[in-house]
Amino acid sequence: MAHHLPWATETALGPSACFGNRVFQALPPALWRQIEDSLATDRELRHHSSRLGALAHLVGRLAGRTDSGWLAKLAEAAVLHDIGKLRLDAAILGKTGPLTDADKAHVRDHGPLGAEMLVAFGGEGFGIATLVARHHHETYDGSGYPDGLAGGAVPEEARIVALCDVYDALRTPRAYKSSFDHAHTMTIMTKGDGRTKPEHFDPHLLRLFVQHSSEIEALYEAA
Ligand SMILES: [Fe+2]
Ligand SMILES: [Fe+2]
């Protein structure tokens, strides 16, 4: 049964927001009740999640995948990748000063937490979403978290979402940082900036991202 989405009437939302709304609307009621209130107040997370659904679907197609069922599961997983953030301590998330090491560990726990939520409430239907929630902060060079997986050991779906996640994070202004334009974001992803490194990404996927850079930009702008 569909839930009522209090924000679904927001104006000026692109096509990806509709897609994100559909994913949230289809969540099992018990899971929905867990996240409903925090999601209603977190506009930034809703929009980030919706854009990732659209971007991951595009990258999946660019990677040559044509199975519409798999692409739909990939996009669903991308929408739900940060769902664990909705269970984090709001006081830590809202901190304006620097985070302590314990705060950082708490925030990093959003991947495993999200995976736990999806397993507990969704079961096997959320198999891909569970993998993506847990592993979307792994990096291709093995320097990511929570498991330090490297290369092909990182599930392909998580490698796709990780690439889209970094792009979206760099493009989007947040309370603590300004945003970069498309060209600068692509430069950071392909040359590195000290924090983001090209070695973090699956080289094949990064090449596709660069080759189809204008489609990525157009989709981000439309979302
Ligand atoms: Fe995340
Ligand atoms: Fe994210």
Beta-strand segment tally: 0
Structural class: mainly alpha
How much is the average pLDDT? 93
Distinct ligands:
fe (ii) ion
> SSE string, helix = H, strand = E?
HHHHHHHHHHHH
The top-level CATH class is Mainly Alpha
CATH homologous superfamily placement = Hypothetical protein af1432
CATH fold naming: Hypothetical protein af1432
Q: What is the CA–CA distance across the termini?
A: 26 Å
What can you tell me about this protein's structure?
- By secondary structure, this protein is mainly α.
- The chain has one domain: Hypothetical protein af1432 (Orthogonal Bundle).
- It has helices at 15-25, 29-41, 43-62, 68-79, 90-93, 101-108, 110-122, 127-135, 156-171, 182-191, 203-211, 213-222.
- The radius of gyration is 16 Å and the shape is globular.
- The two termini are 26 Å apart.
- 37% of the residues are buried.
- Residues 48, 81-82, 165 line the site of one fe (ii) ion.
- This is HD-GYP domain-containing protein.
